[in-house]
């Protein structure tokens, strides 16, 4: 019995032959004992499997498999979409971020919350004091740290220490002075247009006042800078100091 004849015998037992092919295979069974024996063994095997083997209950397994295939299909569709439009999506996100930044800047988004003043002060690192002395030399040195901050230093203010840091990407510095009434600190923060959570104070409401632990805080905004005096003194005592520090006193 050739391999082709063997295939035909199995196909006949499985009911897969029709017409002339079926007739030829059936004739071969009559003339070939080995073909007939193979045919009968295949039929016996099929009958035994049908009697002895029960079909497994696979409803839950098939459902799980089908759900898994659906999930894989969804994942592939998502990956295809992202891969196809990745540059466009990145452009949209970048445009959104830039638009938000521009909106915050133009809408006065650089506002300091008065409650964050403690974090602003505590997050700074000390700097070495300048070698030159005098208000003019000190002002030039301050400009190197913060740019042209609108503040003028009086001779009676003696600088004792300086700390520098960053607040949301903006430069900040704290200058600790001593005058005839004791210590006080000046905190300068660039790109600050207002103070949230502080009470407006003074003539024409040009100052902000709040508290930080046991200290009074008197602040004002000028030329894109926020300036804050911090001291245990009363607000009324800090206002004259602020007036002398401000460059544009008439405002």
Give an overview in words:
There is one protein chain. The chain has 251 residues and is α+β, with helices and mostly antiparallel strands. 48% of the residues lie in helices and 25% in strands. The chain contains seven helices and ten strands. It has helices at 3-13, 19-31, 33-52, 59-106, 117-122, 135-146, 235-245, and strands at 111-113, 125-127, 158-167, 170-179, 182-190, 194-196, 199-201, 207-212, 215-222, 225-231. Strands 2-3-4-5-10-9-8-7 form an eight-stranded antiparallel beta sheet. The protein has a two-stranded parallel sheet with strand order 1-6. Helix 1 (3-13) packs across helix 3 (33-52).
Keywords:
251 residues; alpha+beta; eight-stranded antiparallel β-sheet; 48% helix
Short description:
By secondary structure, the protein is α+β, with helices and mostly antiparallel strands. 48% of the residues lie in helices and 25% in strands. The chain is built from 7 helices and 10 strands.
């Amino acid at each position: 019995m050739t391999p082709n004849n063997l295939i035909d015998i199995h196909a006949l037992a499985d009911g897969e032959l029709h017409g002339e092919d079926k007739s030829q295979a059936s004739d071969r069974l009559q003339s070939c004992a080995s073909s007939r024996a193979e045919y009968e063994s295949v039929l016996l095997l099929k009958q035994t499997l049908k009697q002895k083997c029960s079909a497994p209950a696979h409803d839950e397994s098939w459902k799980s498999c089908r759900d898994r295939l659906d999930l894989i299909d969804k994942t592939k569709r998502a990956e295809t979409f992202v891969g196809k439009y990745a540059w466009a999506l990145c452009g949209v996100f970048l445009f959104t971020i830039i638009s938000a930044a521009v909106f915050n800047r133009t809408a006065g988004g650089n506002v300091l919350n008065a409650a964050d003043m403690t974090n602003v002060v505590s997050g700074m690192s000390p700097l070495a004091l300048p070698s030159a002395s005098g208000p003019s030399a000190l002002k030039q040195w301050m400009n190197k740290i913060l740019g042209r901050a609108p503040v003028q230093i009086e001779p009676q203010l003696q600088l004792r220490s300086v700390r520098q840091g960053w607040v949301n990407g903006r430069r900040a510095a704290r200058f600790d002075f001593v005058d005839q009434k004791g210590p006080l600190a000046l905190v300068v923060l660039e790109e600050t247009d207002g103070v949230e959570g502080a009470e407006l104070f003074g003539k024409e409401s040009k100052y902000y006042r709040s508290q930080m632990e046991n200290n009074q805080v008197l602040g004002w905004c000028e030329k894109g800078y926020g300036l804050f005096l911090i001291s245990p003194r009363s607000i009324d005592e800090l206002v004259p100091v602020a007036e002398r520090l401000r460059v544009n006193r008439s405002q």
